[in-house]
């Protein structure tokens, strides 16, 4: 059972691949492997049983039954630990605690700032210093800390999670270091009082938690190693992240689905709901236990009247909020991207900022906090309120303005901040909206862990409030004509505005649900839904969502969505977008062809066809496999082998004809010897760990067993060392072992000659990992269907075949191009209306594509090397 | 442009298949086809343009520009009509109107019953007669009407929609007749006051609306013919159905997703939200316009207090409701299935009921209405309340009971029904729950259009009310200890109970959202979520959902879900469940092999491999294709052809040697002649309409053009007639045309001999539709992944290959068996805990499987014959 660990790893790896991979002809290997696995499983259970029996024997005198019971209980518990719901409860609990602690720390930070600011009210300059220095220090610390510990923790996290759930592996993205950096960085960043949110980061933190918990739990059971399960758990974790951030389980699940998934498995639905509900529950219970609340209620509870929440004639106003929010949301995304691109393009600024990485955050914080300084400009925009306080006041169910002028409404608590002796409440609101808008767009570009959802939410609420107050001023007695007077509730408008603007920025409908859960009231459901849908309709036709925009900025591998009902997609065919010049290798090609193919192209996988004439697709081979094949064929170990062989032949010849000039003679006979070797040598597996099938070559080609030390012995190659160890005891190897110390005495010319000869040999694919069922499409498959399949199965390329014959290949790149509208078919330029506005953001598509390829490369090389790939280190033909 | 219509049809068909189908080697055909299509598209646009130009010429004198403008506007409008949102708005509007009209009619029916009952209060017997006769007549009419017009309209519709969205085509399920039957049947059934719901039927009605609207709209534009688009629209329609039924857009979308989908495309999300919101909006606006409501509010508005909705210590009570509802829900599903199976098994009853189809509904109605007769037993179970009234009273925010005894609570309106002078309110509630429980389970088996959601919802509310009243009686001053007294709100418990029980029966979490939208309050979100999740956990481990249960009863083709975290699924491999004895045909087989394969197996598709030795999978061919190939080879037209040929040869021989004994001589030379013919004859396409590629055989084999009348002229074969017409003018056919009237003068023995000879010929697959890329798996693919792929892509079988070599096949049947636990792997019997309880319902799995195959057969034969398949009528080898 020595190879158990590697078996486990190999097993796990194989489960991640859809099509598996087999190295031997006719699937014999797979069957053996399956039989072996089952056998080992039986053996394990037998050994378990025997251990129990041993215990029984050992403790016969004492309370043996008790012992056995304990063992069984332990086993039962461990098997239970493997169940999903335990994992989800733990995840929910953990995230609720994290969320609560983060909130608590943020509150303390903000209180500290207020306290400092309040304590220094004798001197405005000192007050200003305190007001400004505090956030600058916090943000700078956050940026620095994140930069040093884990730069992956910067930003929202939702774009990255979207990419990860698409099947891409992002390096270092789900590690403990990132977790620490994200949590501490986020706390400091939000504690500074800058207009930043915690939602996006919490999605990331929850995913980190899930990944770490998964790793931890795998110490107990084995199921946690399954990749598809991990993806399912990550999807649930995203829901938990949103859920425990807003105490909004339903909205959390829906928002996380909308934001991270393309296709959602309904069977995962309950996982999200379960974990998010538990998390939200614990999160709110903690507040009750901490005596912050009397019982579990909504986070931003509203108290609108229930019997007549709004009049039917107010609906146009709600629709206006929706449409305006749509434009606003698109503008926000555009502004955010513009700032990033501006800073990137200005080489001078860029170079300067790159050197002093902490300067940019500090400068931005300085600017923002200076403008919000309450005795300064802040007095006109409720600058002294924190984000939470402003939201609470904005959702207030009292009307601030009546008859067009700001009246003496009974300012209770924080609402006072909105009142300015000289300035109308409308002016305050407008200033608040405008200033916060660009401040938020700017602040979210700071390299700290932060989200944009909450700032946008507050701006939306303010905008809704503005419209609501205007309506209240316009119709002081309400619109309803007959009977009772129902005054207009501006707070309801604020709710609608918040949902609409955040929906527009994130391109989601579920912000409506989040709003209901946040406010604890669902009475405005229809206005909210109408506004959110209108906002989405407008924003989606103008700009990508904020997360997609970040994906583009960060150049993550992505596949754009098919837009709102662009039915031209049904008319484009794969044949219109496929690459017809496919790189392929034939079954009977020689190593020289392999070499040429590897030199000229840079695709990750190559098609394997039967012959250049028939072009029947047999499978696909990864580039790394071919490289290892080639390097195996040309590598030093094999050359040493050749020299040794030559020496042996020489010796034999010497012993027969007693001719001492070995050097020249051996070269003369080398050809016959070489061919003799090569037919057997190439059965050596360059990649597969030997533990998995140590005796397979022996079964197939008995001659190998007779000459086992012909297998090369490169020091890096653990598997071959293992093999050597395995065979060491074999008696017939001893006679040859003294040849191990042959010198590499070939000249460069000789080596070149030798390599030339090697290149002419036919490739032996026996031990090469071939994906026997790469995904195939036919020419007539529509773009719509292709997109669906690519999204569903997370493909990055598919071959186009016609009755088994390879005629083209489609990769994500072509698909993306086609969707984004650079392909014209039947005279129709396929692009969304108003897309020209969007072009400015996607000009550098060529760069993106190469970046994409790099990322894929990384992805591939990261998901592969669970198996030992020794030959990659000494590749020659990269 | 004569073949345009059939082109369109063929195009449409091709879009429905994922992998397309090509009849000629090496994809040449596809390229030609694509080129041809594009050309015709260009031609069309050219002709459009020329038409415009014609107009320009024609109207030069008059307001030509005006005309052109009109044409353009018209075109623009027509193209707009094709956009999704227009369709969705129309669908929403239509469904809102239907929902409102149905509700209105139901209300009138119920009022009429009350009026009759109230008017006859002098005589109890007359009262009873009126109370009982009215529903019996209505239900009998509904059952009869549905039976006569469209039996497909019976029942809920959700199970069928689930099957349809899975990709199966159910016959006659989305027709106008079904629409009429469903709407009228549903109105009558619900107007009778029986415990039935309108939710399920509304999902079906909305889908019907969408399908009909799609057909109607396709008169304007061409996009409505796309199958994937139709599926998307059907998914949106399901959301609309729930949304406009409860005025619950969000809950509607979520519920429809949970109930009908396995994998949900997030890009369809907005469609559902958009249409459902619009529909719910119109539905509620109609109520306002009808002066039923002052403004748009929830359907069953509650008025619970907002500031302290529930105490933390009440949560255990809510959890108890959840768990009890879970058991209750499972019991309901079990009871429902038991009743159906009992009636089916009792042969005597069954035969009697089959003869008098309307007797069963009448009897059930009589029983139920007798028991609810208000002066009789109905007085103990609030029998005189309609479903809607009971729900309103149950959700009331006042407490009915205090200190353990029913107090004189101020009975306003319908609440009085719950009060009985002698009997405690608890007894009334218990009786209500128990009686309604079995009544609902029984009533939903009546063959009328009806759902079970609403009855279950009411029962759940009553159960919640019962627990709530008990709690209120137990803690008269509330549980909260410090400070203010917050009495317990039993109405909140009713909300929780309603959501939990309906969630348990349907296995959905989104009933929580529906409840919030129905009541207009979200304050109880955490209790509701906790109860719903617990109820789901319990119910899902005991029984399938009501809809899955109906799917099993109706034996619809389905794929069971993977249960709650049964991680054994990750350890089963395809190789454990696949069928290794695959039926295949080789590329070089003869017709005899084909014949044998068709005789012995009954699979829908057969694998095409290169040869029996290599077993390289080239594609799959449908059974019907092979049958038509075979019948073509052995059919009468071809035999007549042979006779004609023979006669011609005879004539020639006569003209040369002048020997009169033709009969014997022709038989002697028949062999040579036959072979000469057969090589050319077999290029004739048996299935493909000739309009698609009339000249293809000519291009490939010039000899055919020289002898065009050799093509058989069976009267049913339109395509060959068309071909004949095409070639009729050709001069070299005239000399042979007098042979058209040859007599079928072969004896049976001769025919048998001839057929034997034909069977030995090699099959020519040239004109056979081959799916060149059937879905392939490898042996190591896990069951979990296989299930995912099958669900995602809607497959019904997949081939298992190993480097292109076919080694097995997996179909839905095997997959279902594996999931339902009849396969044991590694000693673990894969089945959910407590599954033994479930077994009683699935004993007849073998019957199901055969039924399934029949359904698939039907599905296949329905989705195929968009193309003309003349040879199916004269098949010999079925």
Biggest interface reads: A-B, 113 and 114 residues
Give the strand line-up of the largest sheet of chain A: 4-5-6-7
Radius of gyration of chain A: 34 Å
Give the helix proportion of chain A (percent range): 55-70%
The multimeric state of the shown protein is homodimer
Q: Report low-confidence residues of chain A grouped into runs of 5 or more.
A: 1-31, 403-411, 660-740, 822-878
Class by alpha and beta content of chain A: mainly alpha
Strand content of chain A: under 5%
The DSSP helix count of chain A reads 34
Give the N-to-C terminal Cα separation of chain A.
37 Å
> What is the β-strand count of chain A?
12
- Described by the principal axes of the CA atoms, the overall outline of chain A is elongated
Please summarize the sheet with the most strands of chain A. Answer: 4 strands, mixed
| Rounded average pLDDT of chain A | 72
Mind explaining what this structure looks like?
The structure is a homodimer of 878-residue chains. Chain A is mainly α and 878 residues long. Helix content of chain A is 59%, strand content 5%. Chain A has 34 helices and twelve strands. Chain A is elongated. Residues 1-31, 403-411, 660-740 and 822-878 of chain A have low confidence and may be disordered. At the A-B interface, helix 2, helix 10, strand 1, helix 11 and helix 19 of A face helix 2, helix 10, strand 1, helix 11 and helix 19 of B.
């Amino acid at each position: 059972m020595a190879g158990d660990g590697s078996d486990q790893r190999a097993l796990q790896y194989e489960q991640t691949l859809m099509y598996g991979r087999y190295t031997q002809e006719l699937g014999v290997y797979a069957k053996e492997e399956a039989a072996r696995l089952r056998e080992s499983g039986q053996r394990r259970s037998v050994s378990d049983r025997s251990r129990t029996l041993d215990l029984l024997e050992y403790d016969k005198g004492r309370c043996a039954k008790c012992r056995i019971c304990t063992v069984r209980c332990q086993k039962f518990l461990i098997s239970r630990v493997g169940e999903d719901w335990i994992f989800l409860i733990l995840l929910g609990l953990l995230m609720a605690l994290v969320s609560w602690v983060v909130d608590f720390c943020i509150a303390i930070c903000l209180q500290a700032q207020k306290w400092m600011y309040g304590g220094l009210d004798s001197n405005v300059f000192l007050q200003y210093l305190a007001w400004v220095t505090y956030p600058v220090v916090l943000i700078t610390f956050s940026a620095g800390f994140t930069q040093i510990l884990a730069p992956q923790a910067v930003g929202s996290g939702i774009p990255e999670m979207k990419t990860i759930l698409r099947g891409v592996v992002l390096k270092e993205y789900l590690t403990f270091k990132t977790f620490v950096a994200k949590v501490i960085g986020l706390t400091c960043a939000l504690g500074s009082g800058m207009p930043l949110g915690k939602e996006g980061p919490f999605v990331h933190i929850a995913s980190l938690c899930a990944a770490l918990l998964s790793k931890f739990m795998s110490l107990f059971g084995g199921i946690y190693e399954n990749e598809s399960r991990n993806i399912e758990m990550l999807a649930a974790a995203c829901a938990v992240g949103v859920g425990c951030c807003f105490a909004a389980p339903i909205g959390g699940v829906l928002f996380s689905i909308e934001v991270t998934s393309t296709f959602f498995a309904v069977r995962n639905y309950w996982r999200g709901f379960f974990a998010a509900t538990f998390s939200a529950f614990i999160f709110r219970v903690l507040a009750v236990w901490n005596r912050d609340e009397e019982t579990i209620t909504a986070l931003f509870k509203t108290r609108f009247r229930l019997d007549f929440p709004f009049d039917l004639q107010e609906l146009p106003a709600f629709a206006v909020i929706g449409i305006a929010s749509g434009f606003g949301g698109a503008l926000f995304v555009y502004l955010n991207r513009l700032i990033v691109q501006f800073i990137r393009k200005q080489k001078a600024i860029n170079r300067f900022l790159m050197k002093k990485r902490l300067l940019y955050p500090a400068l931005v914080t300085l600017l923002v906090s200076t403008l919000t300084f309450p005795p300064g400009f802040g007095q006109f925009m409720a600058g002294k309120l924190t984000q939470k306080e402003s939201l609470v006041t904005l959702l207030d169910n009292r009307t601030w303005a009546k008859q067009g002028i700001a009246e003496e409404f009974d300012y209770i608590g924080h609402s006072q901040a909105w009142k300015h002796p000289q300035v109308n409440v409308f002016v305050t609101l407008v200033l608040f909206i405008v200033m916060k808008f660009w401040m938020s767009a700017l602040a979210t570009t700071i390299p700290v862990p932060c989200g944009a959802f909450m700032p946008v939410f507050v701006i939306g609420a303010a905008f809704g409030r503005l419209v609501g107050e205007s309506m209240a001023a316009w119709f002081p007695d309400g619109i309803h004509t007959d009977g009772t007077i129902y005054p207009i509730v501006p707070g309801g408008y604020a709710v609608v505005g918040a949902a609409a603007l955040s929906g527009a920025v994130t391109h989601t409908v579920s912000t409506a649900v989040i709003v209901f859960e946040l406010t604890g009231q669902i009475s405005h459901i229809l206005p909210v839904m109408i506004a959110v849908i209108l906002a989405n309709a407008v924003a989606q036709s103008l700009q990508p969502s904020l997360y997609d925009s970040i994906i583009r900025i960060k150049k993550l591998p992505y596949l754009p969505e098919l837009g709102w009902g662009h039915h031209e997609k049904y008319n484009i065919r794969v044949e219109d977008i496929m690459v017809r010049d496919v790189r392929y290798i034939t079954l009977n090609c020689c190593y020289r062809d392999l070499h040429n193919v590897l030199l000229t192209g840079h695709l990750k996988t190559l098609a394997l066809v039967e012959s250049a004439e028939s072009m029947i697709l047999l499978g696909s081979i990864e580039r790394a496999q071919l490289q290892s094949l080639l390097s195996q064929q040309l590598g030093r170990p094999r050359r040493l082998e050749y020299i040794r062989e030559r020496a042996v032949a020489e010796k034999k010849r010497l012993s027969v004809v007693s001719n001492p000039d070995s050097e020249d003679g051996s070269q003369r006979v080398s050809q016959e010897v070489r061919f003799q070797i090569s037919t057997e040598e190439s059965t050596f597996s360059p990649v597969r760990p030997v533990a998995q099938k140590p005796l397979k070559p022996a079964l197939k080609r008995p001659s190998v067993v007779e000459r086992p030390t012909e297998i090369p012995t490169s020091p890096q190659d653990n598997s071959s060392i293992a093999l050597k160890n395995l065979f060491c005891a074999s008696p017939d190897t001893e006679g040859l072992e003294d040849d191990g110390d042959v010198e590499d005495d070939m000249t460069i010319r000789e080596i070149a000659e030798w390599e030339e000869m090697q290149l002419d040999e036919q490739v032996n694919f026996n031990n090469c990992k071939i994906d026997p069922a790469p995904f195939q499409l036919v020419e007539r498959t529509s773009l719509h269907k292709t997109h669906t399949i690519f999204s569903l199965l997370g493909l990055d390329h598919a071959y186009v075949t016609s009755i088994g014959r390879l005629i083209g290949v489609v990769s994500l790149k072509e698909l993306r191009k086609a969707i984004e509208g650079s392909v014209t078919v039947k005279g129709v330029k396929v692009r969304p209306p108003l897309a020209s506005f969007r072009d400015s953001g996607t000009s550098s598509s060529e760069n993106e594509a190469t970046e994409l390829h790099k990322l894929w490369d990384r992805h591939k090389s990261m998901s592969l090397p669970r198996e030992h790939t020794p030959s990659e280190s000494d590749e020659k033909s990269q």
